[in-house]
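Hi,

Apologies if this is the wrong queue. I'm a grad student, and the batch job for ATP synthase subunit b, chloroplastic from Moquilea minutiflora produced an output file that my downstream script rejects. I'm not sure whether the problem is my script or the file. Here is the sequence I used:
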Amino acid sequence: MKTITDSFVSFGHWPSAGSFGFNTDILATNLINLSVVLGVLIFFGKGVLSDLLDNRKQRILNTIRNSEELRNGTIKRLEEARARLQKVEIEADQFRMNGYSEIEREKWNLINSTYKTLDQLENYKNETIHFEQQRAINKVRQQVFQQALEGALGTLNSCLTNELHLRTISANIGMFGAMKEITD
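Support response: The file is valid. Your script probably expects a header line. Output copied below for reference.
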C-alpha cells in the first residue's frame, strides 16, 4: 500500500497524453474530485448560499423585531397592570378604612342605643316603683282612714243620741264621698 505522501508525489507525474487509463489511487482521485466539486459549488452556489443566508438573516431580524415589539407591548401591559393593581390596592385600603370607620360608628351607635334603652328602662322602673309606692300609700291611707272612721263611729255611737248619730253619719258619708272623688 502506498502512503499518503506517495499520492501527493504522484501528482507531479502524469501519464503521457497518448495513453488512456484509470487512476486507481483512491486518495489522489478523491482529492481531485473533491476540489473540483468544491470549486463548482463555491462558484455556482455562492449566490444561492448568499441568498439563503440573507433570507435566514432577514427572518432572524424579523423575529428579533417581533420579539422586541412583543416585549415592549408586554412591558406596557405589565406597567398598566401594575398601575391598576396599585389603584385597586388604594381602593381596597380606602374600603378597609371606611369599613373600619363604619364598624366603629355602628359600634358607638349600638353602645349609645343601649345606654338610651337602659336609661328608659331605669325611668320605667322608677316610674313603676313610684306608682307602686303611691298605690301602697293610698291603700294605707284608706285603711288608716277606715280604722279612724270606725273608731270615731264607735266613739260617737257610744256617746251620741240617735238623732245626733244620724247627722254625724250623713256628714261623714258626704265627706267620704268627696274624698273618694278627689282620690279617683
